[in-house]
Specification:
The complex is a heterodimer of chains A (288) and B (357).
Chain A: H1 11-17, H2 19-47, H3 51-54, H4 69-77, H5 80-111, H6 117-128, H7 132-145, H8 152-160, H9 164-174, H10 178-186, H11 191-202, H12 204-220, H13 223-228, H14 237-243, H15 252-286
Helix pairs in contact in A: 2-15, 4-15, 5-8, 5-9, 5-12, 9-12, 10-11, 12-15
Chain B: E1 6-15, E2 18-28, E3 33-37, H1 44-52, E4 59-64, E5 67-68, E6 79-82, H2 94-103, H3 115-125, H4 141-153, E7 159-163, H5 171-188, E8 191-196, H6 199-205, E9 208-213, E10 216-221, H7 223-228, H8 233-238, E11 245-251, E12 256-259, E13 262-265, E14 276-281, E15 287-288, E16 295-305, E17 309-315, E18 321-327, E19 337-341, E20 347-350
Parallel strand pairs in B: 3-8, 3-9, 6-7, 7-8
Antiparallel strand pairs in B: 1-2, 1-4, 4-5, 9-10, 11-12, 11-14, 12-13, 14-20, 15-19, 16-17, 16-19, 17-18
Helix pairs in contact in B: 2-3, 2-4, 3-4
The chains are: A mainly alpha (288), B alpha+beta (357).
């Protein structure tokens, strides 16, 4: 275990303490912040303009008169609320199911002994490399033959087959000392109890990272939901928002309003959980 | 006749072509403290793991209390183990750690209401009663060790297994823990197998020592037998500190040997004459100011003062060197040339293959 010291002698501290380095790092950070925040502000600005002021040149960053019509239209004339609920529901279902399934699979790969384990692990690793685009067509036929097209199951089931989470949780579990689970087995624990009472409590940071990762992946997925679900009231946010521009006139104000609102749940989730897993990681790192 | 608490019959363990343990036969009686002693990689931990059910033997039978356990799950073997790194559950308090074996068991004989009483009782025995609310990370190494012991004794198993439990403690603490472990063992009266590479631990604690090397038993006996009559050169070199001197020698027939120019009488039969042998002499067996029989003389190359003892390296001619121990009161004025005597009993003779003659 590396030993982390929180003193002035640590590399990070000395980097910060040089005035030049401090200046350079602030300049870089400012640049990065501007690059990432500008599009966001532009969307905010666009969502508050009516159609006429939308295309004025040069563009006004701050509209002379705030226009709330886009938001009103979004809630009154589209299924935006329904899309949001669909997205949250599907995302929570997938995250919950994946945490249960992946932790069991990872436990088997990390802590149990069986023939072909190394081969299976390698196979899962290879599967990670297959891009979703290559899977969409065969997946479509599979899901159609199961009669699940245009159902929530079509959105949920394929996402569960992603092996990345298994491998990630496995690496967390492998890092736990073997003697812990040996000891638990001798103390009378079944494999299920070794998993739930010993292993899972000790890899909480890994579970949180896994949950955030899975939820965000689902929240931003576009291609598969576009294929799997047709009716408007079943759509998730990504597909729903893109369907707003299917008319002859693209209503940029409306789309901006929808995009802006769509970022809110994921931002809140991330901020809430990020603090948790950062502190967890830190305490784990400093323990030894 | 009472059955042994633990019995190994022709047990082997191989990993592919590597034989970690070869044909082990071993019996441990109830109340006996058996030490498996050997260098790292000699298979001693593998023996423990097979008994605990962490590793499956490749062949042979393992019995606990007369019951075959080869195919029994670890939790059903009635065996408790103390691990080298203690293996305490970091997310549980000391109380929860000690209570875990009582709570996690299906069909436990212990009722829920009895758990706190048993935990407190175990905690009292190992003197950690005031630590029960803490988490393991708040404890010192010695305290963690005690928690691991409490967790082992709380469910009253038939057999205790200890895998180098003292090796992570500092020397001072190791001394006290050694005595306390023995006291605990006497109190529990169960069969204990204790694994260590530290010959001092083995000598001071064991009722019986099994010396292992490369997966095979080298010698089995009481600490005194292993020290006085090492079965082969490996045991002779591994047990005893400082290490035994090994010197090339020639048989003079009968029971005499010749080391360089020095003829020595032994208690072994060293025939045939002129056979090449190895003679082992413990530094601590050297006697000074004795004269007469079985004397080796040489001049002092180096002398190390360690307090009560002085360790001298002697050049005894023919390119041979030997280390001897001199106590302070044996110290002679002339340090240049010295004669040391060894009793015939203390001259260990080994044949070409290293076996005791």
């Amino acid at each position: 275990m590396p030993h982390f010291r929180r003193g002035a002698s640590s590399p990070v501290e000395s980097l910060k303490s040089t005035p030049t380095m401090l200046l350079v790092s602030y300049v870089l950070l400012c640049f990065a912040a501007i690059v990432s925040i500008t599009p966001f502000l532009y969307i905010l600005s666009t969502s508050l303009k009516d159609t006429n002021s939308l295309f004025s040149y040069p563009p006004d960053w701050i509209p002379e008169q705030l226009f709330w019509g886009n938001y009103a239209k979004l809630f009154e004339q589209t299924s935006f609320v329904r899309w949001t609920l669909n997205t949250l529901g599907v995302g929570i279902a997938i995250t919950g199911l994946k945490l249960v399934m992946d932790s069991m699979a990872a436990f088997a790969l990390a802590k149990l002994r069986f023939r072909g384990k190394a081969l299976l692990t390698t196979f899962l690793l290879l599967l990670v490399a297959v891009p979703i685009a290559a899977l969409v067509v065969p997946l479509f036929f599979v899901v159609r033959s199961m009669g699940l097209l245009n159902t929530y199951w079509a959105l949920i089931l394929p996402a569960l087959a992603n092996p990345l989470g298994i491998l990630m949780l496995r690496s967390f579990m492998v890092s736990l000392p073997e003697d812990l689970d040996h000891s638990a087995r001798l103390d009378g624990a079944s494999e299920w109890k070794v998993l739930t009472q010993i292993v899972l409590p000790l890899i909480k940071p890994g579970l949180v990272v896994h949950a955030i990762f899975t939820f965000m992946l689902q929240y931003t997925s576009f291609l598969w939901p576009l294929v799997a679900v047709q009716s408007d009231h079943m759509q998730v946010l990504t597909v729903g928002i893109s369907s707003l521009k299917s008319n002859f006139v693209v209503d940029w104000g409306l789309i901006s309003a929808a995009s802006l609102l769509a970022t809110i749940p994921i931002t809140v989730l991330f901020l809430a959980l990020q603090r948790f897993f950062l502190s967890q990681n830190l305490s784990a790192a400093l323990k030894h | 006749m009472a059955t042994s608490a633990i019995s190994f019959r022709a047990v082997r363990k191989s990993y592919g072509d590597f034989h970690a343990v070869e044909k082990l036969d071993l019996e441990v009686k109830t109340g006996e403290f058996l030490v498996l002693l050997g260098p790292s990689g000699c298979g001693k931990s593998t023996i423990l793991k097979m008994l605990a059910g962490i590793e499956a033997p490749s062949a042979g039978e393992i019995k606990v209390d007369g019951r075959l356990v080869n195919y029994t799950l670890p939790r059903d073997r009635n065996v408790a183990m103390v691990f080298q790194n203690y293996a305490l559950y970091p997310h549980m308090t000391v109380f929860e750690n000690v209570a875990y074996p009582l709570k996690s068991r299906r069909n436990s004989r212990v009722s829920r209401s009895e758990v706190p009483r048993l935990v407190k009782q175990a905690a009292e025995i190992v003197e950690i009663s005031d630590q029960l609310g803490k988490h393991p990370e708040a404890l010192s190494g010695g305290q963690r060790q005690r928690v691991a012991l409490a967790r082992a004794i709380v469910r009253n198993p038939a057999v205790f297994l200890m895998d180098e439990p003292l090796s992570n403690l500092d020397a001072q603490l190791r001394n006290t823990m050694r005595q306390q472990l023995i006291a605990l063992h006497r109190r529990m009266g169960k069969a204990t197998i204790y694994v260590t590479h530290d010959q001092l631990e083995a000598m001071t604690m064991a009722d019986r020592i099994v010396v292992l090397n490369a997966g095979t038993v080298q010698q089995e006996g009481t600490p005194e037998e292993v020290f006085r009559k090492p079965a082969n050169q490996f045991v002779a070199g591994f047990v005893g500190h400082p290490r035994m001197n090994f010197l090339e020698a020639r048989s003079l027939g009968g029971s005499a040997v010749k080391i360089g120019d020095h003829a020595m009488e032994t208690t072994a039969s060293t025939a045939p004459p002129e056979a090449r042998l190895t003679v082992g002499l413990r530094p601590s067996d050297a006697r000074f100011h004795h004269g007469g029989e079985n004397v080796i003389s040489g001049h002092v190359l180096r002398s190390e003062f360690t307090g009560p003892d002085i360790f001298l390296t002697l050049d005894i001619g023919s390119g041979l060197k030997i280390e001897v121990r001199q106590t302070n009161d044996q110290r002679s004025s002339s340090e240049e040339a010295l004669s040391v005597a060894f009793q015939p009993d203390d001259v260990h003779v080994f044949d070409k293959r290293g076996n005791r003659m």
